[in-house]
Write a structure and sequence with these properties.
Layout (H helix, E strand, L loop, with lengths): L2 H16 L2 E8 L2 E3 L2 E4 L4 E6 L5 E5 L5 E4 L4 E5 L4 E6 L7 E6 L2 H14 L16 H15 L1 H5 L28 E3 L2 E2 L16 H10 L15 H4 L4 H13 L10 E2 L3
Bound molecules: heme C.
Length: 265
């Protein structure tokens, strides 16, 4: 590779590795496609010009403007929520809109997407009967994208051939999802899925929140849970703990596997 090529290549790598492009807008036949897109807060949008003429992406109040030559692309990160209308400064009839979700809307979207989007990360069916869907989706975000409950409470955590630690496309093991059975430091994690009355791990919402705040073992009075990171989780807002509880009541009931797992399996 000659040095100029190598330089181009490393600049390309730099650009692509630091901004994750969530959406691509194609500029073709004097049209932005798709014309309206909705992204999460912090995502980047890339415009790719496939026309033989130069276009621009110019926000209507001039928050940004960038010319894009034929065959070139331009990407930009969106760090403020709102709806941003833009046009091409050379061809003002070309218009488009980028809608950026708020921080909370972005979390809800991710929490829902973990279960609903393709490729499926967690192929379970949620029971939303009698629940506020957004509470459940926020719970999904907190449990699956932040707290890592499945790492310690699912045996095995990932589906066969879908273990990200082996370089495979990630997918949680749905049949034993949060059903416990992981051995950690002499403890075996319990089943968190709903019991026959619909209570996760058999706990009422008050008992669940009390457990996460104080670490008191509900089964053995006086014992403090030794492995559960409850001192960390117990700092969450009541609203967040309620969301986790709502989520745990909506996941499918599952049996704890007969054979225990080690963490990370
Ligand atoms: C580092 C591993 C780990 C993580 C992460 C973890 N847990 Fe646990 N959890 C355990 C273990 C082990 C126990 C068994 C008790 C102990 O800690 O001694 C337990 C116990 C529990 C219990 C008590 C159930 C009962 O009836 O005894 C609940 C409820 C619980 N975990 C919920 C959660 C939730 C919700 C999350 C995610 C927000 C989570 N855990 C994340 C390891 C973990």
């Amino acid at each position: 590779m000659n040095s100029l090529l190598r330089l181009f290549f490393s600049v390309f790598l730099l650009l692509t590795s630091f901004s994750v492009v969530a959406a691509t807008v194609t500029i073709q036949n004097f049209t932005f496609t798709p014309g309206v897109i909705t992204i999460n807060l912090g995502d980047s949008v890339e415009w790719v010009n496939q026309d033989a003429t130069t276009h621009s992406t110019t926000q209507d109040a001039n928050l940004w403007t960038h010319d894009v030559s034929p065959g070139q692309s331009f990407s930009q990160e969106f760090t403020k929520p709102g709806a941003f209308n833009y046009h091409c400064r050379f061809h003002p009839s070309m218009t488009g809109t980028i809608k950026v979700r708020t921080a909370d809307q972005s979390r809800l979207n991710i929490g829902q997407g973990i279960i609903a989007a393709t490729p499926k990360v967690l192929p379970i069916k949620l029971n939303l009967t009698g629940k506020i869907a957004n509470d459940v989706y926020m719970g999904s975000y907190l449990v699956n994208a932040q707290a890592g409950c499945a790492n310690c409470h699912s045996c095995p955590t990932y589906a066969v051939g879908r273990n990200p630690y082996n370089g495979e496309l990630k997918q949680f093991n749905a049949t034993t999802y949060l059903a416990g059975g992981v051995q950690i430091e002499g403890q075996v994690s319990p089943n968190l899925t709903p019991d026959t009355t619909g209570k996760p791990a058999g706990l009422t919402r008050t008992e669940f929140k009390d457990l996460l705040r104080t670490g008191h073992d509900p089964d053995v009075p006086g014992r403090i849970l030794q492995v559960m990171p409850w001192p960390i989780f117990g700092q969450m807002s009541d609203n967040d703990l309620n969301a986790i509880y709502a989520y745990l009541t909506s996941i499918p009931k599952a049996q704890t596997p007969a054979n225990t797992c080690n963490m990370g399996q």
